[in-house]
Amino acid sequence: MSEATLRAEGLTKSFPGVRALDGVDLSLRAGEVHVLLGENGAGKSTLIKILSGAYRPDEGRVLMDGRPVEIRDAGDARRLGISTIYQEFNLVPDLSVAENLSLGRLPRRFGLVDTAAMQRRARELLERVDVRVDPRTPVRRLGIARMQMVEIAKALSLDARVLIMDEPTAVLTTGEVGKLFAIVRRLRDEGVAIVFITHHLEEIAEIGDRVTVLRDGRSVAEVPAGTPQDELVRLMVGRPVDQQFPRRPAELGEPLLSVRGLTRRGAFDDVSFEVRAGEVVGLAGLVGAGRTEVARAVFGADRYDAGEVFVRGRRLPPHDVHAAMEAGLGLVPEDRKGQGLVLGAGIGENLGLVTLRDATRAGFVDLKGQRTAAARVAEQLGIRMTGLDQEVRTLSGGNQQKVVIGKWLAAQAGVLILDEPTRGVDVAAKVEIYQLVNALTDSGHAVLMISSDLPEVLGMSDRILVMARGRLVGELRADEATQDGVMALAVTDVAGSRAE
Amino acid sequence: MRIPAIVMALALGLAACGGGGGDGLELGMSVSTLNNPYFVQLRDGAQEQADKLGATLTVTDAQNDASQQVNQVQNFTSQNMKAIILNPVDSDAAAPAVTAAERVNVPVIAVDRGVNGVEVAQTVASDNVAGGKLAAQELAKQMGEQGQAVVLQGTPGTSASRDRGRGFEEGIKAFPNIQVVARQPADFDRAKGLDVMTNLLQSHPDVTGVFAENDEMALGAIRALGSRAGKQVKVVGFDGTPHGLTAVKDGTLAATIAQQPRLLGQQAVEAAVKLARGEQVEKTVAVPVKVATKANVGEFETS
Amino acid sequence: MRSKQGGTDSRSSAWLAENGAVAALVVLVIALSLLSSDFLSLTNLLNVGVQAAVTAILAFGSTFVIVTGGIDLSVGSVAALSAITLAWTATEGGLPWPAAVVLSLATGVACGLVNAVLIAYGKLPPFIATLAMLGIARGLALVISQGSPISMPEAVSHLGDTVGRFLPIPVLVMLVMGVVAAIILNRTFPGRAMYAIGGNEEAARLSGIKVSRIKLITYALSGAFAAVAGVVLASRLASAQPQAAAGYELDAIAAVVIGGASLSGGKGRALGTLVGALILAVLRNGLNLLSVSAFWQQVVIGVVIALAVLVDTLRRRGTN
Predict the structure, then answer these.
(1) Do residues A37 and A231 make contact, with C-beta atoms less than 8 angstroms apart?
(2) Neighbouring residues of C233: CB distance < 8 A, sequence distance ≥ 6
(3) Rounded to an integer, what distance in angstroms lies between the CA atom of residue B147 and that of residue B183?
(4) Which candidate from A326, A343, A356 shows the least CB-CB separation from C189?
(5) In the prediction, which pLDDT does B202 show?
């Protein structure tokens, strides 16, 4: 293999109170996919932010083709050919694909935007990433997967030699991941050096060439991508993690949640299922199959056209979050930051959000009681924090997710709907969330878990429901289900064969 | 969009009905603001005179917005008004409106404030500079021609504030034993007059005279002075508004320079009717300002 | 505050960082005491309190709204309309003054509820809904009063007087309204819910908070506080004026933001707002005492507003 395209040496970066990076080395060759692995807070984000010019290191240096370079801002990074695709896309939703691809460098003719040239350029770029979409489509109307492809196309338009991808697969379904990998391989073969961040260990062997493992701000190892998963986990966590999916089935009780014939035109159709006390029901399917829509409708967050929802045998009025909550239903939404948390508020405040109204005595909120309850929940969930007043914004993904789950524990919700509960959560925190699910079912709670992470669905559910195109297309017992079996159902073409 | 359109048409219709009907000459009048009792009186005087002469007067409120006023005058010309009475928001900014009207041969009468840069058929105004001078003389007389005085200025940059202030400064020069110790703005507003006077009393506790560039500020200052107003401290206002005249009667306001807004309005309508009938009028009519004191306050209408 | 050694007492510097507006107020007071010998007297400071009262009461109401991430441009007009309602019903309408007071508060609440319905159910942006109310309330005040001031009933005018020899009632009303606002914001369910809505409306909704209902309460409170401010203002003048408090909404918003609130919602405290209103009042008072020219006063006020907020944001950034 050739000489390193990009080399980072001894990068160190401190923030008030934290040393985020401590002498990290990284060497990146042309034509390789280099996986960056580490728990949340290990320093991955800081490292890529230094490479993309968002932060400047306190110590250490970056070399391109053996020559030291200064990356003072995003403009420098671009000139050096370093492109970064963050989890939060840098696209303007209301502009067209073509405009997004030419943003900042709109082709001009006689002082006006040359629309034809812009669209021609867009078509070429889209072809390179193998996406068939009209360049005039507003980005807002693309799904997440295609938005990501547009981001990649944008990076290509800048003649990227180094492409940094921060958890590109976190939001994709299995099929979409396959497609992404095909593009990544093609770019690699064209000689682009790719930094690839993922929490999905099984993806590493499939797409990666080498792996740099970060832990507590240090680079602890550089290993081949073929390294066994449990070894990678040991390197990452610093100790062996016994079991990835520690599901411990509990004794089943009566049905707590029953959904009958739930329908919203254009979103989901005739969805019926039950979740019993002590049970974890997994809801699998492709992104866009209608799982989140069903969950939100059940919880009363959105309206539905027909059907009924019962909690402990009592019927819930439609589109009434408050009633659902009173009945003991809780929702941990897919979009943690956008829908689950008040990021600027403290941990205590967030944990008490659901119980706020019930904690009101004679017009006044029992703030002391709320704090005591919050402290108890934080302790029970092992939320790592400096105190209940720490802003939720500053927590890691895993701890943020614990806060969202915690507010429902504080409210003693009997039925929890978890929508992608471990997305963007590191390995150790994932296991803690799984153990929490076990504890919940042990004490007679019911859990409905939506997840696009198939091993997780298989490993943590007692029963698996599969949705495709707005309908329930199958039900599998967890111990009998396989990834292939679930996928086969998930891609069912409902229009032709009505399942069941 | 249909229903809102109907609602809007109804609302406009209702608002238009409020203006009143009648036959005869159609006159337009754009008032700088009806958010001030003085201009309300100006309008009332004009309306009375129009009713008396059998003319139809349409009054619009420019809400102290010069550009809105230009639009209103243009609308008058397209409504075929026979003459337009303009009470300019701003003497300089009113010129385009006048030009637009005179291009289609509609005569314009400026009232209360003049128009700079173009010629209007007639300007009906009271003399603010002369009024300021009168105020200085009256205040000096009541202060015994000695002591400290403060000035409450109107909204900075307005012509009324400029002219009244200039007149006062010219007039007060004749009294070397009177010292003007502070000049501070209170924006022609009663609440601000109260606050600013309260503050000035802290730094100048020995003040015995106050000139406020309008009655509203004078009334605010009187509120700040409490029982001292009219006794140890003499306050002179400007405008002669009903509340100002009442305060003169009560003795708390030493004097006000009474403009005669009703008379201004009447004069303007009279000239407008003459012009509409093709008669000639004087270029300027100066409506006298008068000093209203407790002795003569009965002569002024206080309705 | 206790004395500091070497100026690096971390607790008091942390406190200052949390309360940048207080620091700005302290600096302003010290500067004015040095520049004008008349500034630092009990009478003058009470004057400042009286002059801050109306803005502060309006701003307490605006604090609720701004905490939810909204804005209320109508408070100045609603204050005028409420005062006119009181004066008109008590004089022309012949109602006993207590009934007129109740009616005046009801007017403020009603205006707030209309705002809230337009915003929460009509889905209008708060800026537009309250801009419309700004015009409507001002217009109604002019219609009712026929454009002229109306005398306030004697009994209500005492609100503008002093208790005993020197304690001004407007200052008392301001403090009471401030305590009420602080209690609502800190200790009641609607208050805590306002912070949640301002911080993340969707998260609040999915936590079972009835967002529309809380917004009704929020804007109704803003209207009620505006009504109180209007009555205090009219009492000080012994006269309700249709054009009173024009432009005060901007002072109120400035006071809230100087006090550390964020216009994007989720942050803001009654104490901060009080300090913000005091900064504005101290400034205007000081400019009068120093006889600063009319033209420069507006420049100075603008600069101080920008500096106060800038200092605050810089301090916050430093600590985060």
Answers:
(1) no
(2) B191, C54, C79, C83, C244, C245
(3) 15
(4) A356
(5) 92
- Quick: pLDDT tens for A182-210: 989 999 998 999 999 987 788 888 999 99
Mapping DSSP to helix (H, G, I), strand (E, B) and coil, where does residue C1 land? coil
* Strand-strand pairing, A314-315 and A364-365: unpaired
CATH classification of B128-258 is 3.40.50.2300, yes or no? yes
**Domains present along chain A, CATH in parentheses:** 4-237 (3.40.50.300), 255-490 (3.40.50.300)
For the stretch C44-68, pLDDT in tens is 899 899 999 999 999 999 999 999 9
The half-sphere exposure of B239 on its side-chain side, counting CA atoms within 13 A, is 26
Beta-bridged to residue A268, according to DSSP, are A264
Domains of chain C: 39-315 (1.10.3470)
Structure tokens at B152: 């409450």
Of C183, C188, C199, the CB nearest to A342: C199
* 8 A C-beta contact, residue B128 and residue B164: yes
In angstroms, rounded to a whole number, what is the distance separating the alpha carbons of residues C241 and C146?
10
CA separation, residue C175 to residues A458, B47, C29, C35, C53 (Å): 61, 48, 20, 28, 9
Q: Does residue A494 surpass a pLDDT of 70? A: no
Average pLDDT, chain B: 87
B in contact with A (at least 3 C-beta pairs within 8 A): no
User: Environment class of residue A351 by beta-carbon count within 10 Å: exposed (0-12), middle (13-18) or buried (19+)?
Assistant: buried
Top-level class of domain B23-125+261-287 = alpha beta
For residue B103, what are the CA distances in angstroms to B31, B71, B96, B107, C70? 21, 15, 11, 10, 49
User: Sign of torsion, CA A163 A168 A174 A175?
Assistant: negative
Give the chain A residue nearest C202 (alpha carbons): A339
User: Residue A286 in contact with residue A490, Cβ under 8 Å?
Assistant: yes
Chain C residue numbers touching A342 (CB-CB < 8 A): 195-196, 199-200, 203-204, 266
Are the beta carbons of C298 and B182 separated by less than 8 Å?
Answer: no
CB-nearest to C294 from B37, B153, B190 is: B153
Q: Specify the pLDDT at position B303.
A: 43
SS3 sequence of C124-146:
CCHHHHHHHHHHHHHHHHHHHHC
In whole angstroms, what is the distance from residue C256 CA to residue C233 CA?
A: 19
Give the sign of the dihedral formed by CA C17, CA C22, CA C27, CA C28: positive
Distance from CA of B282 to the nearest CA of C (A): 32
H-only helix segments in A394-463: 397-410, 427-442, 454-460
- Mean pLDDT over B204-219 rounds to 95
- For C123: left if phi > 0, alpha if psi spans -120 to 50, otherwise beta; the answer is left
Q: Which chains share 3+ C-beta pairs under 8 angstroms with C?
A: A, B
User: Domain spans of chain B?
Assistant: 23-125+261-287, 128-258
* Rounded distance between C-alpha atoms, residue C81 and residue C115, angstroms: 15
Q: Which residues pair with A310 in a beta bridge?
A: A258, A315
Closest-CA residue of A relative to C208 is: A322
pLDDT digits (tens, 9 = 90+) for A430-474: 888 999 999 999 999 999 999 888 888 888 999 999 998 889 999
Is residue A200 within 8 Å of A453, Cβ to Cβ? yes
B198/C238 touch (CB, cutoff 8 Å), yes or no: no
- B128-258 matches B23-125+261-287 in CATH topology: yes
Cβ within 8 Å, pair B35-C288: no
Give the pair of three-digit tokens for residue B116.
């700079």
